[in-house]
Amino acid sequence: MAAACSTEEGGFLETYKQQVETLGDLTIVRPSGFIDAHTAPELERALNNLVSERRFKVILDCQLMDYISSAGLGVLMGAISTYRQNQGDLKIAQMPAKVFKVFDLLGFSKLFEVFDTKEEAIAAFREGSA
Fold it and tell me: Of 128, 102, 127, 104, which Cα lies nearest the Cα of 114?
């Protein structure tokens, strides 16, 4: 499943896309571009759809993410709470250094497991940690 959204900020077009892939009982969500107040609802829809489908083990593959605002971080907080209440989790993989810097500064790296690679996040789920 793929979705796309565009917003105009500061005179230029910022694009957000996402892909969702299932891998057994895991779901990998790959956001691409800017997650801000205009595009965060698209990510929220995808994460809420997974709840409706009872898919609570999710990896957010951030390799192509350029930016995440407080709106996007709020979406992640809401999702992780729901997933953990249902014996799942939301793990973060491949977050670019510039995005991780803000993520870490705001204390989110204490709330989320963050992995250098998607394969490490998959292995963490496979090893039995939610």
Answer: 104
Taking the alpha carbons at both ends of the chain, their separation in whole angstroms is: 24
Q: Which domains does the chain have, with CATH numbers?
A: 2-126 (3.30.750.24)
- pTM (2 decimals)? 0.87
User: Which amino acid is residue 55, in one-letter code?
Assistant: R
Phi-psi region of 124 (alpha: psi -120 to 50; beta: other; left: phi over 0): alpha
The structure tokens listed for 108 are: 């989110």
Helices (H), the chain: 40-52, 70-85, 97-105, 118-126
Distance (Å) of CA 106 to CA 26, 50, 74, 103, 122: 27, 26, 12, 6, 25
Model confidence at 1, pLDDT cuts 50, 70, 90, reads low
